[in-house]
Amino acid sequence: MSEKDTILEHLERQGISRRSFLKFCTLAASSMALPLSSVSVISEVLAASPRPRVIWVSGQECTGCSESLLRTYDEYPVERLILEMISLDYHNTLMAPSGSAAEDSRLAAIQGGGHVVVIDGSIPLIENGAWSVIGGRSMLDVLQESVVGAGLVLAVGNCAAFGGLPKAAPNPTDAHGVDDLITNLNQLSINAPLINIPGCPPIPEVLTGVIVNFILSGGQAPELDGLKRPLTYYGKVIHDDCSRLMHYQNNEFATSFDGDEARQGYCLIKLGCKGTITFNACTTKKWNNGTSFPMHSGHGCLGCSEPNFWDRPGGFYQSLL
Ligand code: SF4
Ligand code: SF4
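Above: the input record for the complex with iron/sulfur cluster. Below: its predicted structure, written as tokens.
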């Protein structure tokens, strides 16, 4: 936590109305599954809190995680407020400065500690990490420096959480997720809580909810599952709230994507849907500003919030039945 300005002071300077701020607080409460009665407390705490400094470092990734967060808010300025509530001091893909000026911003953000480190992308170890380099230094090196004194570390997207596509067989760069480097390989050490927010990409509302929770709780991590995912968002398999669940229970399964059965909403498990084994919030939070989710639109779940989903035997279209 850190800038001198409180969040409310910063928002006022940006010309953002209190009405928009309260609307954001209502969305945040809903995202964290809190009752509407909590909105006034959320708004009071957020308003008086300093903006947390955030350093976002990207390793081996496709930029989809950043795109997901930014593009979703194009037509929804209220939800974009999360980008005003944090001080995004370093994002090696998005920031205007480059070279040593960019790296100086990162080092300045680390001063004093308590910052949030967001990582997207996996971290390669082969050839001293030469396959993901920032400012001439390996991703692992930059990451180790960035997490010193951090208050929270977020591994965003399947690549950062579990290794993702770069780690898929034959894993040519010896890519790893953050927790693997800490827990199994002893290559990275952190003192802050690590939260995995997997998905390919993750749901932007989940990242927003985790950051708001960090501000509200004074730096505490939410309750996590065994894979370090927040239970609020990853506590249920997406199958439990799927619009095709009734057909699954009636043993009504689509056998082709373009047939009448699929159009009538039959279950897609025989076409490869992995919703029964995938923990995520797609069917409750939905995508594209709450418009829909994959099974509702006619395609099965690929299991993108689970470890090793690219390498699942049989591939994306192998039936689990
Ligand atoms: S389409 Fe997938 S998530 Fe939906 S009911 Fe069938 S198996 Fe479950
Ligand atoms: S439906 Fe499955 S594959 Fe699609 S985004 Fe959600 S968890 Fe990932």
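Notes for the reader.
The pocket of iron/sulfur cluster (ligand 1) is lined by residues 238-239, 242, 244-245, 248, 267-269, 273, 275-276, 295, 300-301 (CB under 6 Å).
The chain has 17 helices and nine strands.
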